[in-house]
């Protein structure tokens, strides 16, 4: 199972600044998509030996136990005891623990939780409305100030610097080699050990721009790496709206140019961001775009 890394920026904190201890959350997306969870039978049975037998019994009886459904769907058995995924009734979703669980949809409607959102989206499956509905950002819908052109051009400067710092932080913390592969570590090591590296912290836009010019090579891998982290469902060299979501959703409430940035990133407006489009958005030159860096 591939480990997914989502950088949830501290909600109270500043977006796209140096990551600190609390801001990096490692999330397993598969667990997020399907409830593999604890078997309730095992939890309720006191005796361990007995539990194993009971689990087997129930598995034989309930074909849903090993049947995974995507977000917004739950498993039900039909008359012939065949498991199938059906849309979840939003009223069966757990009550959200607070406003922070709320979700703003691209319809600018607030949903109580992501469960409520995906259940609603499922019910609209096959309709134009359902096709267009995506999770926009985390938190209740709010007024988002329009992004001005000059602000839009600042966005990649900060984002690039942030990506580089995230990678360096992962490198520093990766004691048990679970966050980065050997190949990735090798590349980040070069950035980490470079004396010319701009240290994490608050930097003026002028300095960020200058650093990008002078230390351009240090930014090539971080931009590719983030693309690879997002291009997962499926791994095809294109980012769909859903694939971009883990990056966009926590960012939008704090960085009001996020949506504009990703919209203009899709230069050919096919609703997917290709590696070439992505690299171009971050100022990586065409000749430096390299599919092999993504893996
Ligand atoms: C979205 O909803 C929020 C809160 O209801 C509102 O303040 C905001 O203006 C809406 N945005 C748009 C683009 O309609
Ligand atoms: Ca993809
Ligand atoms: Ca495109």
UniProtKB/TrEMBL annotation:
CDD domains: EFh_SPARC_SPARC (cd16235), FSL_SPARC (cd01328). GO terms for molecular function: calcium ion binding; collagen binding; extracellular matrix binding. Keywords: Basement membrane, Calcium, Copper, Disulfide bond, Extracellular matrix, Glycoprotein, Metal-binding, Secreted, Signal. Residues 1-17 form the signal peptide. Residues 86-143 form the Kazal-like domain. It holds the Pfam family SPARC_Ca_bdg. Disulfide bonds join 64-75, 69-85, 87-122, 93-115, 104-141, 147-257, 265-281. Its main location: secreted. GO terms for cellular component: basement membrane; extracellular space. It is found in: Secreted, Extracellular space, Extracellular matrix, Basement membrane. Belongs to the SPARC family. Appears to regulate cell growth through interactions with the extracellular matrix and cytokines. Binds calcium and copper, several types of collagen, albumin, thrombospondin, PDGF and cell membranes. There are two calcium binding sites; an acidic domain that binds 5 to 8 Ca(2+) with a low affinity and an EF-hand loop that binds a Ca(2+) ion with a high affinity. This is SPARC. The gene is SPARC.
């Amino acid at each position: 199972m591939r480990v997914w890394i989502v950088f949830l920026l501290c909600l109270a904190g500043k977006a796209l600044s140096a990551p600190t201890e609390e801001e990096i959350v490692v999330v397993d997306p598969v667990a997020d998509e399907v409830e593999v969870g604890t078997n309730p039978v095992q939890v309720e049975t006191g005796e361990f030996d007995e539990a194993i037998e009971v689990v087997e019994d129930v598995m034989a009886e309930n074909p849903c136990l090993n049947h995974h459904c995507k977000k917004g769907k739950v498993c039900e058995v039909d008359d012939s005891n065949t498991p199938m995924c059906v849309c979840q009734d939003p009223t069966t979703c757990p009550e959200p623990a607070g406003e922070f669980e709320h979700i703003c949809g691209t319809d600018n409607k607030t949903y109580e939780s992501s469960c409520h959102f995906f259940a609603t989206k499922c019910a609209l499956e096959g309709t134009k409305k359902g096709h267009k509905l995506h999770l926009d950002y985390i938190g209740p819908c709010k007024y988002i100030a329009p992004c001005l052109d000059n602000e839009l051009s600042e966005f990649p400067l900060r984002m690039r610097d942030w990506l580089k710092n995230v990678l360096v932080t992962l490198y520093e913390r990766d004691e048990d080699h679970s966050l980065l592969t050997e190949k990735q570590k090798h590349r980040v090591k070069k950035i980490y050990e470079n004396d010319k590296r701009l240290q994490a912290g608050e930097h003026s836009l002028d300095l960020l721009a200058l650093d990008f010019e002078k230390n351009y090579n240090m930014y090539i891998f971080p931009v590719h790496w983030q693309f690879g982290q997002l291009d997962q469902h499926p791994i095809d060299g294109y980012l769909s709206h859903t694939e971009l979501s883990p990056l966009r959703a926590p960012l939008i409430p704090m960085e009001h140019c996020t949506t504009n940035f990703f919209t203009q990133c899709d230069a050919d407006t096919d609703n997917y961001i290709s590696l070439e489009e992505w690299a171009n958005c971050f100022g990586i030159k065409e000749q430096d775009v390299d599919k092999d860096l993504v893996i």
